[in-house]
Amino acid sequence: MNSLHGRAASRALIPAALSVLAAIALSACTANSTDDTTTIAVSITDDACTLSETTAPAGDTVFAVTNSGTKVAEFYVYASDGTKIVAEIENVGPGLTRDLAVPLDAGTYVTSCDPGMDGGDIRADFVATATP
Question: What global pTM score does this model have?
Answer without folding.
Answer: 0.72
